[in-house]
Design a protein that fits this description.
about 130 residues; mainly alpha; two-stranded parallel ribbon; globular
């Protein structure tokens, strides 16, 4: 039963991650990370397949290996998250506490991506 839940989570993460790679407002990174996590716990065969896909290699491989992300990947993720949070911020016009919390979460996100994740040169990512 647990294995089935991980499989379902992996496929949901994969589907949303693939959509996020194509749609500008849906982030791919967290969903692909979910897929990698779930596939690793459910099926060795699916996990091997997933880590061999272009989607994984372009979005997660260097991060999961602990090397970091390219500047372009970091900017893409930060831009999409900023746009998404800006929509929420605009919709919270009558909820000032919500705006403050969202602002703090956004600032934490940006600071983490700037200082917490190592920036790789562009060429390293294209060779991987």
């Amino acid at each position: 039963m647990k294995k089935l839940l991980y499989l379902a989570g992996g496929f949901i993460g994969l589907g949303l991650g693939a959509l996020g790679a194509a749609l500008p407002l849906l982030p791919a990174f967290p969903f692909l990370l979910l897929a990698a996590y779930c596939f690793a716990r459910s099926s060795e065969r699916l996990h091997r397949w997933f880590v061999g896909t272009r989607l994984y290699k372009e979005n997660l491989e260097s991060f999961v290996a602990g090397r970091g992300m390219t500047r372009r990947t970091k900017l893409r993720i930060m831009t999409l998250v900023t746009l998404t949070m800006a929509i929420g911020f605009a919709m919270m016009g009558r909820v000032p506490v919500g705006r403050v919390i969202l602002g703090i979460v956004w600032a934490g996100h940006v600071l983490y991506f700037i200082f917490g994740i190592r920036t790789l040169p562009e060429q390293e990512n294209s060779e991987s």
